[in-house]
Amino acid sequence: MTDTTTSSVDGPKGPPIGALRLPRQLSQSRAAYILLAPLLIFFGISVVYPVVETIRLSFFEIKGLAPPKAVGLGNYLKLFYDENFMRALRVTFYWSFSATFFSVIIGWALAMACALKPRETMVFRVLIFAAYGVSEAVVGFIWLGIYRPDYGLLNGILGGMGLEHLQQAWLGNPATALTAVIVAYVWTQVGLPLMMCFASIQSIPRTYFEAAYIDGAKPMSMMRHIVMPLSLPGVRVAIFINLLQSLKAFDLIYMLTGGGPVRTTETVGFFMFRESMLNFKLGYGAASTVVLLVAVLIVSIPLIAQRTRAVK
Amino acid sequence: MTFTQKSGVGRRTILGALAAGTMLSPFGIGAAHAADISGELVMINWLAGAQGEMMEALQADFVEKNPDITFRNIVPTSSGDTRGGIRTVLLGGEQADLLINTWPAFRQELLDAGMILPVDEAWEENNWGDLLADSWKDLSSIDGVNYGVTYTFGDRSGIWYKTDSMEKAGITPPETWDDFIAGFDKLNAAGITPVSIPAKIWAHAEWFKSTLLRVAGADFMSKLARHEVPWTSPEVVTTFEKLAEMLNANCCTDPNTMLASIWRDSADTTLLTGESGYMLIGMWLNTRAKQEYGFEPGKDFDIFQYPAMGMGYDNQSMVDAKEFNVLSSVKNVDAANAFMGYMLTPDAAKIMADFGLASPSSAVDPAIYDPVVQRAVNEVLKAEKVHFVLGDLLPGDLVHEYRIQIQKFLQDPSDETIAAAVQKIEDVANDSY
Fold it and tell me: What is the 8-class DSSP label of residue A279?
């Protein structure tokens, strides 16, 4: 076996390569750390410190402006006996999975439809994606207008169609409020999967379609056997991003329902806000934040690992 | 008038002070004005909308009188209960001179955290006692030490109505509970929903609080606020039953519409469009009706006191108030004292009156108020006992729970719901104190 690392063009005249290699590696490492330092410092201040501080706070009872009192795992134990938190967890799972499912499915379907006529659908795609870029506070105002019980657009349309019996206070009815907020949320989120799936579809080599065409494949068959499977990488990333976004959703819920009626739209994110900022129980709120963080990690780690393997 | 959260002070105290008001000149305040004040006055100011504009106008007037002063307002991010934003500002290390506070329970929290200072010395030096009755001092005191200067107060037992709506229904403002309920049929027949209860966030609890005051009185309410009596008490149950009587008499729209509405929606349907007959809310609605609807108080709209129930507590009122607290981070003490003193002057009261609010200062001639504020002030002064608004006295999580339980009750005002609601509130109260 040839040890290429010890071969030297200078032969015995020069020093052994191994002796040269170590200092050079150290020097390279040092340079790398120096170059990375600003980013690492920024990352430490903006990400690591808040996370560590939140975890630390979660072990304290902090009520209002009163000094903190160490309670160990007390906040976590209390959380899992808190029926409001358990309800918030259930709402969060329902919210996240349904919002992600519908955003991605609709986005994917629209992407496939747009891929048939890319040039002609450009304005449509931009408009759909624009909703993704609009502040959720603004989206909240738009949908408040749509859902208003008196002069709301939705009830107006239902009335115009002779469906007065379906008119109702969409955001005030505990049976419809969560669905109503999810619909508004999906409206804002569908732009991202649309663009990601569209990009995935556009990256499919034309030769695949040509070969399929020569073999006599029909458009639907090409859609099913080429477009759908080969756009899956984009779908996976869209699922990942949408799921993470929905787990921490807050703004739209705050705008539309404030967590109500009767807590039916209170997600863990909103629970955390209420406990931390309204009731100002910072320790308890921090504990719920840590639980949410764990949920986000559970979702993220497998997907990040999978993407990392794919890159390797 | 007695604030039952504190040691009792007879209504004569305030009446006497107000009666003397037109004769008094604010010498003490004048002394404060005469002081050479300058520099920056930093205020944690969370007032928004028309009340925010009012504070701007007050600051501008003060600056005109004291040109060497500049104001810097620290505006906490407001989200329902502004205390969260204020706490964030304070814990974030903001250094301010004054804080606007409307929650007595929060004053105690600020004191416990060492964040506010006594104002007794300034009170004496500036003779504020000549302008503010002892009951206001008691209200802002903790264990005999005064921590605040109240600059405005409002009637929270006033029910608002549009005068046209009453004429349309052929009724007059009811004085008794029975008249109140009996009027619902006429209002409904006129196409007006008798009562608008905005139950999306907090305003629905106004009806609970005012009914509780009539059913059980201010003393009971104080005990409930301190959790010296349980929420499962018969008085609380009766309060819910009275509200159920109202709901069963077709007072309101469907519960889901109530649960989708905020107080501004109710204000619009009650005073602006006349689709609803009555609404119960604080005096800031007067500001909205004047400033935003362009209505004339007393002519286009008016208030009447919560109807008498004949249970022994009909001559009682609920009020809210706003005060200034001097923060322990105060840098410009002279300017802070001068501004608090200015807020008790007729000039400041005139600005507040223009915005539809009342000053507690005895230096103010009540004639400057519009008819609605005059009525509200008179009702408060006439009251045998006055109680501070219940919700501002309760711990945050308890307030939230009782609002949620009232939401559930509005959906189903049955005996079972009432029993479950009071028990749930009591459970949370047991954990909150």
Answer: S
With a CB-CB cutoff of 8 Å, which residues 80-99 of chain A face chain B? none
- Domain A83-311 homologous superfamily, CATH: MetI-like (1.10.3720.10)
Contact A174 B258 (CB under 8 A): no
Residue ranges, comma separated, of all CATH 1.10.3720.10 domains in chain A are: 83-311
Domains and CATH numbers, chain B: 11-155+318-388 (3.40.190.10), 158-281+394-432 (3.40.190.10)
Nearest to A65 among B80, B110, B200 (CB): B110
Across the interface, of B79, B90, B411, the residue whose CB is closest to A65 is B90
Report chain A residues whose CB lies below 8 A from the CB of B103: none
The model's confidence at residue A312, banded by pLDDT at 50, 70 and 90, is: low
Q: Do A64 and B115 touch (CB under 8 A)?
A: no
Q: SS3 sequence, B184-247?
A: HHHHHHCCCEEECCCCCCCCCHHHHHHHHHHHHHHHHHHHHHCCCCCCCCHHHHHHHHHHHHHH
**pLDDT digit string, tens, across residues B102-151:** 988 889 899 999 999 999 999 999 999 999 988 888 889 999 999 999 99
Please give the Cα distance from B66 to B284 (Å, whole number): 28
Query: Is the predicted ipTM greater than 0.90, yes or no?
Result: no
Nearest partner of B194 among B207, B204, B184, judged by Cα: B184
* Partner A, chain B 237-296, Cβ-Cβ below 8 Å: 254-261, 269
